[in-house]
Design goal:
four-stranded antiparallel beta sheet; single chain
Length: about 290
C-alpha cells in the first residue's frame, strides 16, 4: 500500500489468534495443557478450570477476579480487597482494605493498590517500605521473592530486603512485571521501559535502545529463547540473548518485534501465560494467543 508522504506499507496476516471476550480476561497455567480462566462481564465474574477438554466452574459471583494463584490443589482468588479459596469460598486472612493485584506462589504474600502484605498467623501484616501499587510478585529458582511496586523493585532473600529505586537508576514509574533470571531480574515498568538488576547494578532499556514501547505490564518467557511483553500498543517480543548482551554492554540496543494485537490489559497477576506452547496475553478486547514455535 502506498502512503502519502509515508512510503510503503505491507499488509500481512498477523501471527496470532484473537478471542473476543468481556473485560479483564485472565489465564493461569496449572500444569501441562490445563489452565484456569477468569472473565468478567456486566453480570459479574466467572472462573473456569480447563483440563483435558473438561471444563469445570470454580467460582461465579457479582465481583471480578483479577488476581489468581494456584497453591497446592486449590486456587486463590483476589476478589476486590479479599483473597478467597475457590474450593471453600473462605477468606485466607480477612479483608485487606485495598484491591488485590497479585498473590505469591505460596499464598503468603499479597500485593494491593495500597502496598504489600504478609500472612502471619491467619492475619495480614503490612510490609513497611513497599508502596502500592504492588502488581508483581515473582519467585526465582533460588527461592528469592521479587516484588514490583510503586517505589521500585524489591528483593527478599530470607529476612533481608533490598530495594532498587530512582536513586539506584530504577524507574520512578510503577514496576508492573518481574522476570527473575539467573543472578538477577528483568523488571517491566509502566512508562520507563525495562530494567535489569544484577551484580553490575541497574541497566535501563527503552525505545531509544530498540524497545517497541516503554510499557511492559507483563513479561512471559517462552521455550524458544524469547521474552514476550504486554504493552499499550500491543504485544512485543525480544530475544533473551540480545537482552543479556545489552545488559553486559556488548550491544547498544536490541531488536524488538511489535504485534499490534490491541491495547494490553495489565496491572494485575496473571497478565499473561505460557500454556501448551502458546503465549496468551489479555487485551481490553479479549485474549490473544501466539504459537511461539511458528
Amino acid at each position: 500500500v502506498g502512503l502519502t508522504g509515508g512510503g510503503l506499507a505491507q499488509v500481512v496476516d498477523q501471527p496470532f489468534e484473537h478471542f473476543p471476550s468481556s473485560r479483564a480476561p485472565r489465564m493461569l497455567p496449572t500444569g501441562g495443557s490445563s489452565f484456569v480462566s477468569s472473565t468478567c462481564g456486566p453480570s459479574g465474574g466467572r472462573v473456569m478450570r480447563l483440563a483435558d477438554g473438561a471444563d469445570k466452574e470454580l467460582w461465579k459471583g457479582a465481583d471480578c477476579v483479577r488476581a489468581m494463584q494456584w497453591v497446592g490443589d486449590d486456587l486463590l482468588m483476589g476478589v476486590n480487597d479479599d483473597v478467597l479459596w475457590a474450593s471453600t469460598q473462605t477468606s485466607l486472612g480477612g479483608a485487606l482494605g485495598s484491591q488485590v493485584l497479585a498473590i505469591s506462589d505460596d499464598g503468603g504474600w499479597v500485593g494491593t493498590t495500597d502496598g504489600l502484605f504478609a500472612l502471619e498467623q491467619g492475619h495480614w501484616r503490612r510490609e513497611g517500605g513497599v508502596l502500592g501499587p504492588v502488581a508483581a510478585l515473582a519467585r526465582g529458582e533460588d527461592g528469592v521473592l521479587w516484588v514490583g511496586s510503586g517505589n521500585g523493585l524489591h528483593r527478599r532473600d530470607g529476612a533481608t530486603w533490598t530495594r532498587w529505586g530512582p536513586e539506584e537508576g530504577m524507574a520512578s514509574t510503577p514496576i508492573r512485571a518481574v522476570w527473575p533470571h539467573e543472578d538477577g531480574a528483568w523488571a517491566g515498568s509502566y512508562g520507563s521501559g525495562l530494567f535489569h538488576v544484577g551484580p553490575a547494578g541497574v541497566t535501563s532499556l527503552t525505545t531509544a535502545n530498540g524497545l517497541s514501547e516503554n510499557i511492559a505490564s507483563a513479561i512471559i518467557a517462552d521455550d524458544q529463547g524469547y521474552l514476550w511483553m504486554l504493552g499499550n500498543r500491543g504485544v512485543s517480543r525480544v530475544a533473551v540473548s540480545e537482552l543479556e548482551s545489552f545488559a553486559e554492554g556488548a550491544l547498544d540496543g536490541v531488536r524488538c518485534r511489535l504485534f499490534r494485537a490491541g491495547e494490553g490489559d495489565g496491572g494485575t497477576q496473571p497478565a499473561g501465560a505460557l500454556v501448551d506452547g502458546h503465549v496468551f496475553m489479555p487485551t481490553v478486547d479479549g485474549m490473544v494467543a501466539f504459537d511461539v514455535a511458528s
